[in-house]
Amino acid sequence: MPKSIAYLNALRAFEAASKTQSFAKAGLDLNVSHGVVSKHIKNLEAWLEVSLFTRHGNRVELTDEGRVLAPRISEAFKIIQDSCDSIRATPRSKVINITAEPAFAYRWLRKQLADFKTQFPNIDINLKSAWSPPDINEGSVDICIHFEQLLKSSEVTLTRLFPFEGFPACSPSLFKKNRLEEQGVTADLPLVHESGRDIWRSWFEEYEPNNDAWKRGTVYSDLSLALDAAVDGEGVVLADDVLCARELAEGALIIMDNRRLFCDWYSTVTSQKASSKPEVDNFLSWLTEKFSDIQHGK
């Protein structure tokens, strides 16, 4: 350890005494006895091999060497204080690691994160999409947002965001070309499937049980790919009001049948470790507020 650091307390005592011209008053400022201040000054003088004060009973006066040293020590302590204050005043960024179902991550969450950052500029988001939810308590994920039936909810807090309720939709060109306002979803059109044919099969079983049209069409690995395919005119997809809000508003997708199928909930789970973090609570509060006006039907 450098000698100057070893004598840091002595230098602090010297600085206080140089301002008060009294070891007793310096002791009051430092919350120590005047004897401790006197001992520090003696040790400092012995190290520097000079006298820093002339003693006059209970009063002390700086020597020439003391008057040279005093402003430099005061300036040094001021630099230390300012540096510490600057660090304490600097906001510390917090990081939240989020894994989300690809369609939700791509079509909704990514576009909304700018709003979150405006409200919470000191919270950073690491967003990763995944077809299959990870083990939320394995350590690398704070929050997972996915279809509820795929989430392992034991020992974690599960919160529902909104229901995915699918209705048949297609591109304007496909709609116009095939006069779908007259034929509806039973027209001889290809369907666009997501992760197998079960969802379309359920829609037909509920509304048109004698129709096996669900057997036709292309199967994509996730919902986001299926929705993009429908926008490109490849076929009819089961869209929804939340993830497809932009496409519906801009006319990239047209509702061709208002009959809806409840598919699943989009829900969140939070790891046990992350559940006590204020930044995670801020994100979940922001997220649930975004969906607070959606009517949870089923």
Secondary structure layout plus pairing:
Layout: H1 3-6, H2 8-20, H3 23-30, H4 34-48, E1 53-56, E2 59-62, H5 64-89, E3 94-100, H6 102-119, E4 123-129, E5 143-147, E6 157-170, H7 172-177, H8 180-183, E7 192-194, H9 198-207, E8 218-220, H10 223-231, E9 237-239, H11 245-250, E10 254-255, E11 261-270, H12 278-290
Parallel strand pairs: 3-4, 3-5, 7-8
Antiparallel strand pairs: 1-2, 5-11, 6-9, 6-10, 6-11
Provide a short characterization of the protein structure.
By secondary structure, the chain is of the alpha/beta class. It contains twelve helices and eleven strands. Helix 2 (8-20) packs across helix 5.
What is the global morphology?
rod-shaped
Give the strand tally.
11
Helix-strand sequence: HHHHEEHEHEEEHHEHEHEHEEH
Task: Tell me the β content.
Answer: 15-25%
Report the structural category. Answer: alpha/beta
Query: Which spans have pLDDT < 50 for at least 5 consecutive residues?
Result: none
Mean pLDDT: 86
Oligomer: single chain
The helix count comes to 12
Gyration radius (Cα, Å) is 35 Å
Provide the helix percentage. Answer: 40-55%
User: How far from one another are the termini?
Assistant: 69 Å
Reported for the largest beta sheet, the result is: 7 strands, mixed
Characterization of this structure:
- There is one protein chain.
- It contains twelve helices and eleven strands.
- With 298 residues, it is α/β, with parallel strands linked by helices.
- The strands form three sheets. Strands 3, 4, 5, 6, 9, 10 and 11 form a seven-stranded mixed sheet that branches. The protein has a two-stranded antiparallel sheet with strand order 1-2.
- Helix 2 crosses helix 4 and helix 2 crosses helix 5.
- The protein starts with a helix and ends in an 8-residue tail after the last helix.
- The mean pLDDT is 86.
